[in-house]
Amino acid sequence: MADKANKEEVVVEKTEAAATEATTTAKPKAEVSLKESNPEKFLTDFNWHNYEEGIDPVDDGKLEEFEKLVAENFVDTLDDEVVDGKVVFLTDRDAIIDINAKSEGVVSLNEFRYNPDLKVGDTVEVLIDVREDSTGQLILSHRKARTIKAWDRVNAAHDEATIVNGFVKCRTKGGMIVDVFGIEAFLPGSQIDVKPIRDYDVYVGKTMEFKVVKINHEFKNVVVSHKALIEADIEEQKKEIIGQLEKGQVLEGVVKNITSYGVFVDLGGVDGLVHITDLSWSRINHPNEIVELDQKLNVVILDFDEDKTRIQLGLKQLNAHPWDALGEELKVGDKVKGKVVVIADYGAFIEVAEGVEGLIHVSEMSWSTHLRSAQDFVNVGDEVEAVVLTMDREERKMSLGIKQMTPDPWTDITKKYPVGSNHKGIVRNFTNFGVFVELEEGIDGLIYISDLSWTKKIKHPSEFTNIGDTLEVVVLELDVEGRKLSLGHKQTMDNPWDKYEAEFGLGSKHTAKIDEMVDKGATIKFNDDIIAFVPSRHLEKEDGTNLVKGEEAEFQIIEFNKEFKKVVASHMAIHKEEEAKIVKQAAKKQAAQADESKPTLGDANSALQALKDKMDGKK
Length: 619
Prior knowledge:
There is one protein chain. Helix content is 25%, strand content 34%. The chain has 619 residues and is of the alpha+beta class. It folds into 6 domains: 82-146, CATH 2.40.50.140; 161-231, CATH 2.40.50.140; 245-314, CATH 2.40.50.140; 323-405, CATH 2.40.50.140; 412-493, CATH 2.40.50.140; 497-584, CATH 2.40.50.140. Strands 1-2-3-5-4 form a 5-stranded mixed beta barrel. Strand 7 (175-180) and strand 8 form a beta hairpin. One of its GO terms (molecular function) is structural constituent of ribosome. Binds mRNA; thus facilitating recognition of the initiation point. It is needed to translate mRNA with a short Shine-Dalgarno (SD) purine-rich sequence.
C-alpha cells in the first residue's frame, strides 16, 4: 500500500507540474489576445466558468497531456460500475482489491466461498458500491458484480457446454441449492452422482464442478448436474469393460442397490445383477442377509445378452458347491437330521448340510394314502429326522422320507383288520362314489355309497355323514399288495329288508293311502323304509274310476325285489281277484252238479243267469 501511495504522489506531482507549466505559458498569450482582439469577441469567447471557479486558462496541449496521465493511472470510479480488480492482499476475513483508484477496496471473503483457492494476484470482478465512505474507504462488492454478470455467464456456459464451479449452499427438497456465478441453481438429487445418494448432507459446504443442463428464461431458473460430468468418463469406461467381458471372468464391484430379488453391483460404470439364488448355496430370505450397500466384493460373470447391456453375475459360484464336500459315506437308507427351510404344497425342503437340501414329498410324510398339506406335518425352522430315499450326486438331488421313521402299519394288516371285523373310523374325505374312513394313521378304507345304508337312496355321501364324523364299519375286502381296504357301514346293522321280505312278500295285502301322484302312477308309503309304486292302470277301482291322492284303499304286492329295494303294489288286483274267485266258484259248483246229474242246457243257462244277476246286483 505504501508503494501505491508513493506512485499516486508521483503521478499527482507530475500532473500538477504540467498544469502549472501550462498556466504560466498561456498567460502572455491570453493578454495579447485581449489587447489585439475585438472586445466583443473576447467577451463572447471568454470561459466564464473557469473564471468563476478561479481556474486560469490553460494551454490545450498541456490539458490533453494532463488528461492522458489521469486516464493511464486512475479509473473513473462511478457508482454501480463493474470493473476488474487485482487481489493485492488477503486477511483472515477480507480481500484487498486494487482497481487503480486513489485507494484499494475491501471485499469480505464470504463472497468468495465458491472459490476457496483465491490467492494474491488473482483478477476478480467487483462493483464499485461506494466511492468513499465516512472513513474515506472505497467500498467494493464481488457478489453484486457476479450477479450482474452471472446471467450472461450461465447462458454462455449452457450454450457452450462448459464446466462451471459451484458452491453447495444447502440441502432442499429433492436436491441441493448451488451458488453458480452468484445465482442460486438447483441440483436434483438424481444429478449428484451416477449412484444413488443416501446422505445429501455430506455435500453441503463443498465446491464442485457442474454442467448447466437447463435454463428457464421466463422464471430465471437454472438446473445444474454433477452427474453429467462423470457420465462421459463412465461411458468410456463402460465401453472398455463391456468389450472385455467373458463368461467366467471374475471382477471386483461395489454393491449399488439391494432389492428383494437380488443385488445390483457396479463394475465400474457397468451394472450387473446377482440374483438372490446366486448369492449363496444356502437358501436365504433376503439379499441383505449376505451383502450390504457400498460393500466391495468379487463376482463372477455367469451370462450376458448380445448387447452386453444385461449382465448376470454370481457370488456363490466363487466357492465350491457344498455337494462336493458331502461325504461319500452318505447313502440311500441312511438317517439324516436337518432343518425345514421351505414348505410348498407338494412337500418340504430340508437342509441337511449348508447348501445341501433334500425334498420330503407330502406322500412321504405319512403312511396315510389320504394326502394332506405338508404344513399339517412340519413348519419352517423345525428340526426333523428323515431317511434318505434317493440320491443323485451328479444332479445334486436328494429325496427324503419321515414316515419311514415309524413302522409301516400295513405290515400286520391282516391281523389287525381281518375281513369281517368291526371297527370305528373317522370320515376324512368324500368322493362322488363313496367315503374315505381313516381307521388309524396310514390305514384308510373306502365305503362305497351303496354300502352306507340298507334303506336310504343316497346320491352323495354328504347327505348321510360329515367330514370328521365317527362311523362304525366292517371290513368287507382286504388287498394287501394294493394297500386297499373296502369297508361297509350298513353291514354293521341287520338288513331290515330281510324282515320286509316276509311282511311285504309277493301277494300280501296292505291298507294305505295314496301318498303322491307321480309320472305313470302313484306312490304309497307303508312305513319309513317301504315306499311302493302303483302303476296308473292299477289305480282303477271297481267302479272304473281311479284312486286319487289321500284316498285310502287296500293294495296287493305284485312285485318285491330286496336287492334293488323295489316294491310294486296294485289296487285293481284286489277287486279283479274277487271276480276271479266268483267265476271259479261258479265253475266248480257247476262241475259238482254235473257229476250228480246230467244237467240240461236250460239248467246251465239258469246258473249262468243267476251268476250274472248276482254280479249286476253288486254293481
